[in-house]
Amino acid sequence: MTISIIGYKYIQHNLKIRAWGYECQFTFISESDGRIFDDVISVPSLKIGETDLEVLIEKRLLLISKPLPPPEIIVLDNSQVENYLKAKGIIKPKHTLDIVKTTMSKVAEV
Prior knowledge:
This protein is α+β, with helices and mostly antiparallel strands. The protein has helices at 50-64, 78-87, 97-109; strands at 8-18, 21-30, 36-43. A 3-stranded antiparallel sheet has the order 1-2-3, covered by helices on one side.
């Protein structure tokens, strides 16, 4: 049985019996960017029909092929960083970032 899903090249799939139920391990390659998707889904039975299996695999591929959103970038000025480090006890209340930078530069030179 070869599974046909638009936008993906079929490599292989295996239906397996596990202690917790039935599963299908599958491998597809995205035709658009060449990414390889090798994943496992639960299936209701080893006698699942080809079209039902295609639907389950396609749903999973749509879910895992979505690009991840870029990480949120937080920009802080020196005073915000200094206050954070003081609040966490990383630097002493009387210290400033300039003192920390100078000390670290001296340590790096040694």
